[in-house]
Design a protein that fits this description.
The protein is an alpha/beta fold and 896 residues long. 43% of the residues lie in helices and 7% in strands. The structure holds guanosine-5'-triphosphate. InterPro entries: P-loop_NTPase, Rab, Small_GTP-bd, Small_GTPase.
Length: 896
């Protein structure tokens, strides 16, 4: 028996083997077969149940699948519907937009069409105008043609008139001969009368007029002019006498009725010798007929027969009121009368350059009835000459200056002349030139010279400038500057001379001039020359001059330094009890050399440790453009650098070596370059360099120590952004001149200023810091030693003013709360570019005061108060410091 296959299930693999096992089991263990059948049945039922569950599950699955399909279908339909709606919406929007665009386009199109229509109308109008113009042109052409014909007609009539004139001339001769014959006849008859051998004086000669009336047909010949009677009445005058006749032609028949035109008065001059206005010419040579310009009296011969129409035709050719000079020029060609206006006459003895023109003004001179008769050509020429000066044109010699020109015009001429003159011709030419120029032009010269003096300094007393001359034109001043530098064998000498020029006789502050200058910022070529200050605004110059004037302080002129040798010998305290002694800028390195060998500076020089090799290298190899420092121990100012002609104090001060200690410059920066050329060799002013003896540290007793012990030593640090003018300000303090072409400070720079006040020696070490950010760390270190700070900003730079806060923070960080701070707004001369109002500076100063710092807002003009405030405060408090100690001193507000 074989086991029934499990329904619904495929036979298991190796089923035959199972069946074999089953058969074997039934044979060997028949009792177990029943259990297995039951098991199989049970399993079958379980499988059937599982099958049913499976089917149920499949049903459920199918149902859910259909539901899902349905949902998806529904969603799909909804989405489709939504998309459709959106599509319709977009379509509607685009349709509406298109409609709007279409309408807009339609409007634009209509407007354009309108424009086109207007243009077309305009074109039509233009065409109509063009055709009208064409017709007008044709009319004008026909009129021209008619005029030409009329001209020809007139020419024919003119020929007729000429013929008539010839006839008239012949008849005139006949009449004249007849009149003379009749007169002789009458005389003979009178002489033949009995009782009258000689004609008495009381007898009258026969009236020629009567004779002419009786026998002469002249009135008829001369037409209807009523004034011919006068002519005839004068006909009996001697032949050489000139006959004048004034007559007026009848009104022109072409004249339009209206205001009465002035009567044309013609002066007819008949002179017997036929002295013509112009060359005598044969009538057969019309080409040589002189031409008469419009308005010029033309000569007509025997124009008596000219009919009124003919003369009326000529009237418009001359201005109304012009008198014609009609001469009895028998030898003249009648064409002379037909002189056209376009053919000017050149009188014989007339200057061609004075060719007269037809001007209305001319009629005032031409042939006024009261004028004497023109008897000769020379008189006519004289009339010409009279006319010419009234012409508007300038006389040909007007370009040349008048002998005595008025001062105003002379000034201009003088100025232009001076520009054109060469360098050698400049100067006071009026004094050198005798004659008229020197006389009336002298005031102008004086004014001009004053102007020059305003823009350039006075003459230098130095020999180097003697040949230059006191007044150089601006162009030459540049050359002068170059000369100044070229004259010296090296830049230092040129600088010294220029400096000497600066400190001329008018120099009010010579005694306070500095001894040396730290060459951290070198002067560019000519910058020390006073001419350099020409580019400076006037206000700035004034400000600087005012600053350094120290007028209110008892200044110590020249003898201040001259007395210093005595001070060096222990007599410094006795320097006359001057309130303010001298100020000097000494570079640290120079202090060593400036000792007893150079007594003028000894009292103010500060001892330093011996120059290091580096310093010696600096001294031996100065940078180009920098005055070469003399060897250590050598007397400054000796050698070729010493300007022998400059005043000793100034020259030696300028000749002081200026080796760089704080910074080293190896090349000259171009003017106005704000980039340092050489990096500072000083990384930390209080460390290595100081140890090397190059840098006197703030508070170092040896640094800045003068030969005589100072009573007070203070460190004043100039702070502020780059380009605010710190170095310029310092230079101004020392050099009494504004330096241009300064390069940006590298590292830190310092100068020493020594002031003697009330027999107290104040030594101020002025530290010029670099405003550039890369040097701020160095500056911060310096701030710890500060006694006073001049915090500067540029009134034309808001940024520099904003950064004042930063510098105040730096001061606080450095623990400099007790430091006196002077807030200084610079560049006040640039008022137009001002960005920081004065009130803002004052407010900031007050705010700083509230913050515990003393600050005051000072202007450049009030800088002298800075020094006086410094010194007064220090002296009154007695808080000075002996060299070697450090003391912070509080300073009061400067007195304004
Ligand atoms: N108009 C005008 N210009 C000035 C004045 N002071 C300085 N300057 C100009 O400002 C520029 C900067 O001057 P510096 O003295 O070199 O400025 P600084 O603050 O020392 O700059 P740092 O080198 O960064 O320290 C220069 O071109 C000067 O000519 C002033 O009072 N008026």
């Amino acid at each position: 028996m074989s086991a029934p296959p499990i329904s619904g299930y495929p036979p298991l693999p190796r089923q035959t083997e199972i069946w074999q096992l089953w058969g074997k089991l039934r044979q060997e263990e028949p009792q177990l077969a029943g259990n297995l059948a039951g098991f199989v049945a049970k399993m079958t039922s379980c499988l059937q149940e599982a099958q049913a569950e499976k089917e149920a599950l499949e049903l459920t699955l199918r149902k859910r699948d259909s539901d899902h399909h349905r949902e998806v279908q529904q969603l799909y339909e909804e989405m489709e519907q939504q998309i459709h709606q959106e599509k319709q919406q977009l379509q509607a929007e685009s349709d509406s937009r298109g409609l709007a665009l279409t309408s807009q386009m339609q409007d634009v199109l209509e407007a354009k069409e309108l424009e086109v229509q207007q243009l077309a109308e305009g074109q039509r109008e233009l065409e109509a105008q063009l055709s009208h113009l064409r017709s007008t042109h044709q009319e004008a052409a026909s009129e021209n043609q008619q005029l030409r014909e009329a001209k020809r007609d007139l020419a024919g009539r003119l020929e007729e008139v000429r013929g008539q004139l010839q006839v008239t001339k012949g008849r005139l001769d006949t009449v004249r001969g007849r009149v003379s014959w009749q007169m002789e006849e009458k005389l003979r008859q009178v002489a033949a009368l009995p009782g009258l051998g000689v004609p008495g004086a009381g007898e009258k000669a026969p009236d020629p007029q009567d004779v002419s009336r009786e026998e002469s047909p002249l009135p008829g010949l001369f037409g209807d002019n009523d004034d011919w009677d006068q002519l005839l009445s004068s006909f009996g005058s001697p032949p050489h006498g000139a006959l004048q006749l004034c007559w007026s032609p009848p009104p022109s028949p072409r004249a339009t009725p209206g205001p009465q035109t002035p009567r044309v008065v013609r002066q007819i001059s008949i002179s017997e010798p036929h002295a013509l206005l112009f060359d005598q010419k044969s009538s057969s040579d019309p080409d040589r007929v002189p031409r008469t310009p419009p308005g010029v009296p033309f000569s007509a011969k025997d124009s008596k027969e000219m009919d009124s129409d003919e003369q009326d035709d000529r009237v418009p050719r001359t201005p109304p009121g012009v008198t014609f000079s009609i001469k009895d020029s028998k030898g003249m060609d009648p064409d002379e009368q037909d002189v056209s206006a376009e053919q000017p006459v050149e009188p014989r003895d007339q200057d061609p350059s004075q060719e007269p023109e037809s001007r209305p003004e001319g009629r005032l001179l031409w042939g006024l009835p009261g004028l004497p008769a023109v008897e000769s050509g020379s008189q006519v020429a004289a009339t010409f000459k009279v006319l010419i000066p009234l012409e508007d044109g300038l006389p040909p010699h007007s370009n040349s200056p008048p002998p005595q020109a008025p001062a105003g015009s002379s000034k201009q001429i003088q100025a232009s002349d001076s520009d054109d003159k060469g360098p050698g011709s400049w100067g006071p030419p009026s004094r050198a030139q005798p004659g008229a120029e020197a006389g009336p032009q002298e005031p102008t010269q004086a004014t001009h010279t004053m102007t020059e003096q305003e823009t350039q300094p006075g003459p230098s007393p130095t020999t180097a400038l003697e040949g230059v001359g006191p007044a150089k034109p601006p162009r030459q001043r540049e050359a002068l500057q170059q000369d100044l530098h070229a004259t010296g064998s090296e830049p230092g000498l040129g600088f010294q001379r220029a400096r000497a020029l600066t400190l001329g006789p008018a120099e009010p502050f010579q005694g306070l001039a500095s001894v040396g200058l730290v060459p951290t910022k070198r002067l560019e070529q000519g910058q020390a020359d006073p001419a350099v200050q020409e580019g400076l605004p006037e206000g700035l110059r004034e400000a600087h001059g005012w600053v350094l004037g120290l007028g209110e302080l008892p200044s110590l002129p020249h003898q201040g330094l001259e007395e210093e040798p005595r001070a060096e010998e222990g007599e410094q305290v006795d320097q006359g009890g001057q309130d303010l002694g001298s100020e000097q800028s000494v570079e640290a390195h120079s202090l060593e050399t400036a000792n007893l060998e150079h007594p003028q500076q000894d009292s103010l020089l500060i001892s330093l440790p011996s120059a290091t090799p580096q310093a010696q290298v600096d001294a031996e190899a100065p940078a180009p453009g920098k005055p070469a420092p003399p060897p250590v121990g050598a007397q400054p100012g000796a050698g070729p650098q010493e300007p022998t002609q400059t005043p000793p104090t100034v020259a030696e001060q300028e000749a002081q070596p200026r080796p760089s200690l704080m910074t080293t410059h190896t090349e000259q920066s171009p003017p106005h370059s704000r980039e340092p050329r050489v990096e500072s060799m000083l990384e930390d002013p209080g460390t290595d360099s100081r140890e090397a003896g190059l840098i006197p540290p703030p508070g170092d007793p040896m640094a800045g120590r003068p030969q005589a012990n100072p009573d007070y030593l203070f460190h004043v640090i100039f702070l502020g952004d780059s380009n605010v003018g710190k170095t310029s300000f310092l230079h101004l303090l020392h050099q009494n001149s504004f330096a241009t072409g300064l390069t940006a400070t590298v590292g830190v720079d310092f100068r020493v200023k020594t002031l003697l006040v009330d027999n107290k020696c104040f030594v101020l070490q002025l530290w010029d810091t670099a405003g550039q950010e890369r040097y701020h760390s160095m500056t911060r270190q310096l701030l710890r030693k500060a006694d006073g700070v001049v915090l500067m900003y540029d009134v034309t730079s808001q940024e520099s003013f904003v950064h004042v806060r930063y510098w105040l923070d730096c001061l606080q960080d450095a623990g400099a709360d007790g430091v006196a701070i002077f807030l200084l707004g610079n560049k006040m001369d640039c008022e137009e570019e001002r960005q920081v109002p004065t009130e803002a500076g004052q407010q900031l100063a007050q705010a700083s005061l509230q913050a515990g710092m003393q600050a005051s807002h000072v202007t450049l003009k009030a800088v002298k108060c800075l020094w006086s405030g410094f010194l007064d405060t220090l002296a009154s408090r007695g808080e000075g410091t002996v060299p070697g100690t450090t003391a912070h001193t509080e300073m009061g507000l400067p007195r304004h």
